[in-house]
Amino acid sequence: MSDAVDDTDMTDTATDDPVDATADASTDEGAGEELPPHRAAPRSGRLDSDARQGTPYTESQVIMPTVKVVAPFAFTFGLFITFHGSGSPGGGFQGGAIMAAVVFMIAFAFGIESTRDWLANTVVVALAVGGALAFAGIGLVPVALGGAFLQYDLLPIPILDPVKYGMEGVEVIGIAPIVAGVLMGLFFLLANGFATENGGFGNGSLDEDGSLDEDGSLDGESADAGGDR
Amino acid sequence: MTGALSLAGGSAAAVPASAGPLSAAPVVAQVTAIEASLLAFVVLTALATAFARDVLAAVIVFGAYSLGMAALYTFYRAPDVALTEAAISAGVTTVLLLLTLAKTTRIDHEAAFESVNLPAAGAAGFLFAGLLLTMGDIPAIGSPDAPVWSNPDVTQWYLAETYAQTHVENTVMAVLAAFRGFDTFGEAVVVFAGGIAALLVLHREVFA
Amino acid sequence: MSVVDAALVAGYTVGDFLLLAAAGFTVLAIGMLYRAVKGPTMQDRVLAVNVLGTNTVVILAILSAALSEPTFLDIALVYALLNFLMAIAISKFTVERGGVL
């Protein structure tokens, strides 16, 4: 969306803008409900035009470029905290939380809904479930080989040190994805809020079900009453 | 923990936290100036969080509380805890609380602070005084005689054996992922189950 | 021996003075806390908590130098990053009380 707006921005400032500004200034008294002279014409695409002022604050001109610059570095730093946990403070939990915080940052800059579309539910669920399965898998491989749960020295890792890289594996592909996935999931979940009758359980193919009608009305009630449940 | 981090940081040998002369300012009951000011900051923010009438103000002051706690953990040479406090409390908790507030209704208050419920305050003060009575038996902060540090079977054993057995330098991570790996697996499953529980409570089927 | 362990005045080392400076910054943070708690408007509180975060980054960096633990700078970096997140989150929340989130 922002790309299209930027394109019109370029062309408009090149061609239409001086005309619009003078026209606004001259016809300002005639048209009472027109914009004040310092505001651009509604469809000009300039920053102070109605089209862009009308869009919500998610398109902040300060936050968006800053986040564009900061987010890659912050994500890399989260990866560093995760991967370097064996030699410095940190680990999978902290690194996963920082990577989730980068997603929060992007969501605050570009709007939660568009971030939700960009980061599909599959990704969030795959991170959380895949992390849990990877952790359990790394723990269960030594059990299959006749050892104890998470007995790293039995891990079949060639050349490399199995103890060190087994622990790194637990931190990097186990804990960090679980934490990052669950925190992102909580973020999007809380941004959606409590499911009322037009969302959540009553939303899918189960809509035909008679019993769910009652459930939906119950949901509405409890949402009105506040967080009693 | 100190031992692990001095290994990682390449600084002096593993010594208890109290061995260095940390008292820059006049020492009052063996609390240095930085400790005293940080503790005062933490207590003040905690009280302000508890008494703030407006929920948004409480959330904001709670963010400030986590700033003080992270600095305090850092001073006590617990950088892993400080990092967790920074990542979770400042970043994630504040954002999640704000999102929750955005979905609830606002109640306007005239008063800035909660009024104090005297019986509850009396009960809490009584409990607090009782807990204070036990303070005399707790070893001083960073004391080399503290059982948690001088125990040759637990702390010293981990500090001595971590690198030999797990080949990583950070003792905290070694304890988490190797020595107590099964507990950590349980924690990870708890985090996962927390996400599922949030889905159930909010009556949703998908996260995003 | 590093610079931090060099004795300056009356047996106090550079590290001790760095800790004293950190204590001074913490006292300043307590002063800023007044604005965060009292602050008539939410914008005051947002600014106050942002200043507090920057202050904490400075305190953490000084602690890292005074304790001769360079890895502690990671915590300061995390705080600098998350303080920005906290600031934009709260400041966007104050507009229409989360209506534009």
Automatic annotation (TrEMBL), chain A:
Pfam families: MnhB. It is found in: Cell membrane. Keywords: Cell membrane, Membrane, Transmembrane, Transmembrane helix. It is a multi-pass membrane protein. The keyword Cell division does not apply. Residues 1-19, 206-222 have a biased composition (Acidic residues). Its main location: membrane. One of its GO terms (cellular component) is plasma membrane. Residues 66-184 form the Na+/H+ antiporter MnhB subunit-related protein domain. InterPro entries: CPA3_antiporter_subunitB, MnhB. The chain crosses the membrane at residues 69-87, 93-112, 124-152, 172-191. Residues 1-55, 205-229 are annotated as: Disordered. This is Cation:proton antiporter. It comes from Halorubrum salipaludis. The lineage of its organism: Archaea, Methanobacteriati, Methanobacteriota, Stenosarchaea group, Halobacteria.
Automatic annotation (TrEMBL), chain B:
Residues 40-105 form the MrpA C-terminal/MbhD domain. The chain crosses the membrane at residues 29-48, 55-76, 82-102, 123-142, 185-202. InterPro entries: CPA3_Na-H_Antiporter_A (IPR050616), MrpA_C/MbhD (IPR025383), MrpA_C/MbhE (IPR046806). It is found in: Cell membrane. It comes from the Archaea. GO terms for cellular component: plasma membrane. This is Cation:proton antiporter.
Automatic annotation (TrEMBL), chain C:
One of its GO terms (cellular component) is plasma membrane. This is Cation:proton antiporter. Keywords: Cell membrane, Membrane, Transmembrane, Transmembrane helix, Transport. The chain crosses the membrane at residues 12-34, 46-66, 72-95. It is a multi-pass membrane protein. It comes from Halorubrum saccharovorum. GO terms for molecular function: sodium:proton antiporter activity. It holds the Pfam family MrpF_PhaF. It is found in: Cell membrane. Signal peptide: none annotated.
